[in-house]
Amino acid sequence: MPAPTRRRAPARLAACLALGVLAAAAPGCAGFSFFGSGGPSYATTAKGNYEKGLLEMKRKNWPEAIKLFQYAKSKFSFSKYAALSELGIAEAELGRERYAEGIDGLRGFIKAHPTHEMVVDGYAAYRIGEAYHKEIPSEWFLVPPAYEKDQGPVRDALRELSAFLAEYPDSPHADKARKLEEDCVRRLADHELYVADFYLKKKRPQAAIARLEGLAHGDFLPKLPAESGVATGRLGQVAHDYLRTHLEARVLLQLAHTQLAMKNYDEAKASCDQIVAGHAEEKQARPARELLVEIQRRQAADPAAKK
Length: 307
Fold this sequence. Notes:
The protein is an all-alpha fold. The chain has helices at about 10-15, 20-25, 45-60, 60-75, 80-95, 100-110, 115-120, 125-135, 150-165, 175-200, 205-215, 230-260, 265-280, 285-300.
């Protein structure tokens, strides 16, 4: 079945919905009124309630915004603003950091309105991936480094973002999703290096080698569900690309140290040679040359290596 034609949402609609531009969009939405301390004063039209909800979103008054959106959704269920209010409720839940509720709302919106502009252009699916990314624990300097923590939230975010990019590669939100995806890849790669280094310091090179070889081969990212076959293949390529661009010399140097600890001298030499030949300008090149000398010294002194 051919994919539906993707249409870009009208500029005004997109501006009014995206939280990142609400501050700019709100002044252009007419009909706002201010509320007393007793709660929202509901408008007589679907549009009026929806626009009041947007104003409360701008003020970060999430509960009031939800009340207004819920009223517009239930009172004017056949209006186009009912669907927009459904999306607005999900956005408000994300705004107050109730990510599970916001994600459920976005999934419900996608299921109920598959041809809506904000579904067709990938906006709702992108917001799900972004919400998962926001659930990743922060990298605050006063707490243990993020790569030492459980990486479950990172894997969840990566699955959603990669699935989004596989389904909506031409979405206007794809570039933002790629940046978040790369951040997830970086976090998982850093975690694998941390674990490998931990095993090496504990003199367990056999355990370290499995982690490092997974990194070297680009096999360190989680597998996606079977039904997302396109996304699974794409994610493998993302891992390989990230390795070559950002991580290869670092991984190879740690791999060489681990191979040396296992007395795999020829393999350790090959890893160092690969750094010197392919990454001569990177900071790992000098340690690799020094390690080559150490490998030769140890190999010459090892009676078992002479057999």
